[in-house]
Design brief:
Elements lengths: L6 E6 L2 E7 L5 H14 L6 H12 L5 E10 H4 L5 E14 L4 E11 L8 H15 L4 E4 L6 H9 L16
Length: 173
């Protein structure tokens, strides 16, 4: 794998997976993927909140890192073929005394349904872990819907554990 900060290419059978830092030119594609994420998790759509958050992330907010997940066909690796945008990863940074310092949160991880089950989620989380290491993060957290058995199984297989606490939240503003 190459340097994580900008782009990483990992092996993927007859194609490769690339994690590319999102830019403002990805805005409309990201908004569509975010809508897919919300449908998949049966979350209420709040387009104005999602748009505002994405705009902040894409404008360079240092506390959030958004990466595009792309599949590159073999010919694209030689500069001849196309890439296919198949998902995204949003990682946010914070701090926790009990964690010993900086921590990160996988805010959103989404892979389009036609390519799910091919290891892209696992690769995205491994990518996030490498990025966190580069950023000096001591703990990586994520959340999952209680009913999402498939995702829970993936996270458990990668070493993520419940910590016996309930995550509470309050929307401010």
């Amino acid at each position: 794998m190459t340097n994580v900060a900008d782009e990483t290419v990992a092996p993927y059978a007859a194609s490769s997976v690339r994690f590319r830092k999102a830019t403002t030119s990805d805005r409309s594609a990201l908004l569509a993927l975010c809508a897919g994420y919300r449908r998949a998790d049966a979350q209420a759509q709040a387009p104005q909140l999602v748009t505002a958050a994405l705009d902040a992330a894409l404008s360079g907010d240092a506390l959030v890192h958004v990466y595009i997940i792309e599949l590159l066909e073999e010919s694209a690796q030689r500069g001849e073929g196309a890439t296919m945008l198949v998902g995204y990863l949003a990682l946010t940074l914070g701090f926790s005394i009990e964690s010993g310092g900086r921590e990160a949160f996988v805010d959103e991880l989404y892979v389009e349904p036609p390519v799910q089950g091919r290891g892209l989620g696992s690769q995205a989380l491994r990518f996030a872990e490498v990025l966190c290491h580069e950023l000096g993060v001591r703990r990586l957290r994520l959340e999952v819907e209680r009913e999402n058995i498939r995702a829970k199984k993936l996270y458990s297989a990668l070493g993520y554990r419940e910590h016996g606490r309930h995550l509470l939240s309050k929307l401010l503003g």
